[in-house]
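During the second half of the funding period, the structural biology subgroup turned its attention to how the target accommodates small molecules. The most pressing case was WTA, which had performed well in the primary screen but for which no bound structure existed. We therefore specified the complex as follows and requested a full 3D prediction, including the ligand pose.
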Amino acid sequence: MKTETIEVQGTGFNLQDYEEARRTFSWSDVEKVFSWYETGKVNMAYEAIDRHAEGERKDKVALYYSDAQRDEQYTFQEMKAKSNQAANILHKLGIKKGDRVFIFMPRSPELYFSLLGAIKLGAIVGPLFEAFMEGAVRDRLENSEAVAVVTTPELLPRVPSKDLPALKHILLVGDNLDLEQLNKEHPTVQLHDYHKEMADASTAFDIVWVDKEDPLILHYTSGSTGKPKGVLHVHYAMLQHYQTGKWVLDLKEDDVYWCTADPGWVTGTSYGIFAPWLNGATNVIRGGRFSPEDWYYTIEKYKVTVWYSAPTAFRMLMGAGEAVAERYDLSSLRHILSVGEPLNPEVIRWGLQVYKLRIHDTWWMTETGGMLICNYPCMEMRPGSMGKPFPGIEADIIDDEGNPLPPYQMGNLAIKVGWPSMMRKIWKNEEKYNEYFRLKGWYISGDSAYKDEDGYFWFQGRVDDVIMTAGERVGPFEVESKLVEHPAVAEAGVIGKPDPVRGEIIKAFISLRAGYEPSEELKEEIRQFVKTGLAAHAAPREIEFKDKLPKTRSGKIMRRVLKAWELGLPTGDLSTMED
Ligand code: WTA
């Protein structure tokens, strides 16, 4: 079978020979990077910030932060001082090791100071995306029994403090606060003025050393059923963050790195905080909303060299057109990566044309804490494939009994248990946790995929999304990928719609690019496009145009919401949906 390949671009990568690394790599060697290997004193925040602040990188910029109002930068030394101050505030409130401290606010330097400060204290941090409404906030704070929340006056009304008996403190990041008045509305907790407290706090702090298996961070994520689950990671995850940062992000001393994800989602912490700073890289954080102009401006302004984003963003940039990209100087870019959903080959081709660079797909999940299957700068790429397992990771395609399947057979994407950033718990839900490990020795991802004869993995869909139509198995991603190749299609979501004759038929929800109007002719043209470009059985029998498709913040089109719309059923938990 002839596969489209894209050659390696350039030389001098941190990882130079993938096959060699697979043979020789061991996680225990990575432990030696960290001082705790000898001292036994572990803390993620020490390795990410203080270590550099005490060494040659002390005056290097750790964080560039900007949004429409602010434009700031902080060296590693300054990051150490600020996070120490935040740790001192939390310490004064009586927060201790193991307590859950949630951070519910838009991106800002204060978010990063507080998060690192809480980690320095040995607390478990829980980042919450700013768009969560009251119900979503309640679910998470209730389940985790959080004792403190760091938030802003704007978001405070969404913290239902009276319903949360464990919650004792709210730290407010805002100007001119009337704490007395606000305390009347939140009589069961103590409110504190972050800026005032910071002004009085010492910049020195005795970091709390923990065990490498002590909990670090709790990320809530939604499954196909039930309430969001709290996925717990430990400090030891730093091995994975560090090493994937080195070999997949390919971070080097002079890099300026930008991960576009919000820390409310795992990409925004594992790769927006830990991986870059464990590697001592300069990290760019851009607040505010997405716009093609603003994002290109950010790359130009900071001379970003390594850029980690998501397929939705790349598709929107593609939708905005090449002319917008041409107005900015993007020549600093040397490495681009993607995560969160399938990266369409069409987008990769477009990236090659416009950025003159390959976009490297990476696969992982909230539960896996770090990258597992990736495209490496040193490796030939096959567009549409998420790449090969990271050295030290064993991945395979297995059937429902745990038997490995031969190449090209679709099955459960599974990982041999035991990588450093693997979740250690689902908070207060052992049963859910055990479901992932129901086949002995394997972590079952819930994704379906196949591998080719050269060991590249190809994503097919969530196990529950695969469509059976007239006896044919169709992965919705394949159809969606084809659909977005059509010039009129901006985004597409494909579901199986129950059908008395065929079992299911394929139905596509489509949003159009600017300049195109919905019409019956266009539907037919798109249908023919898939029929001729992919397969007759894969062509959507039904097409519905929508202004916008329901998506998670990490950019996944929520097929389950499309399906619920279609069937007139309740849409379930929408707390991870964008907007
Ligand atoms: C999907 C985001 C295709 C997959 C880090 C997985 C992907 C889920 C890819 C986890 C990829 C992630 N190609 N699908 N490269 N990366 N996914 O927990 O279905 O928000 O199970 O973690 O996203 O999403 P989560």
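Two results from this model are relevant to the next phase. The two ends are 43 Å apart (CA to CA). The chain has a mean pLDDT of 94.
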